[in-house]
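Entry: Phage protein Gp37/Gp68
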Amino acid sequence: MAVTWNLWHGCQKISEGCRYCYVYRQDEMHGKDSSLVTRTALFNLPVRRKRDKTYKVPAGEMVYTCFTSDFFVPGADEWRTEAWAMIKERPDLRFFMITKRIDRFRVALPEDWGEGYEHVAIACTVENQTMADYRLPIYKELPIRHKIIICAPLLGSLDLTAYLDASIEEVSVGGESGLEARTCNYDWVLDIRRQCVEKEVPFGFHQTGARLLKDGKLYRIRREFQHSQARRAGIDYRK
């Protein structure tokens, strides 16, 4: 089971992978300004209680955290200490967050973080070699218990060999969604898989994207099939 905890909403575009951000697309449909960071009504979701004083979010759930923003966005700095306190209060949950701002990881970090909270996984997103070579050296040195590299939206071939070791629990790859999606070349996906197999790092192909180039043919894939078609490729690798 899983729940989504979008404790704040809104973000600013900072790299090429942000160009056609799905949050911006959705907000535009409702006349919202995605660049404004605002606290949401779900801010305290993990610590809400029922009448019998038990938590509304039961133990054992995976909590997908901050998927309509970035947990480390500057506009949320004033709330992050309280957010970490709620995460600390619920060690019976598993929190998973994805960031393009791994260089801001230490802003408002809890004093007792140490080598990381065991129930928190922080994934670092890279979309091209430039971002991989900037973000991943920082990521590799940080005290995070559970590390995952997300290559999405994959915009070009990547050489990740310098960053793949036992500290990386998985590399997950996905193409770009949306009407303006840029093409994902299946050869890039397979090459990242090869690197992972050679380094014995688990690999997952989680999304084809809207435009997938495979064997010289461009496939246009509807949004509802992009995850299932990726799974059907059968190229995930587990040690």
